[in-house]
Task: structure prediction
Amino acid sequence: MDDAYQIETEPSSEPPRRRSNPARWLRRLMVLDAAAVSRWRAGCWGARLVPAGAAISLVAAPAHYLFDKAKSSPAGLIAVIGSFLLFGLGTVAALTRNSWNHSESRIDK
Result:
């Protein structure tokens, strides 16, 4: 048999992909929905610990995947994406400044 047709038997350096469990996603969404509905019906929004925990657990699996992909991406690509994200964040902050910055104008004095 020729060496050109041999199958590579060495293990790959890439870890095996984990599949997303739909039951986990369903439980996370149920906790988030239950917290939102109970707070809406009661009219009292109180502490936001349970909804924040459910939202963080919903975002954890996709964020893990994205961070793994970012590790193997070129540094220039990550820099450009980060620059666009910071530019967008600054634009949103500038456009919504009137709603969160209630300082008096120097002209009005």
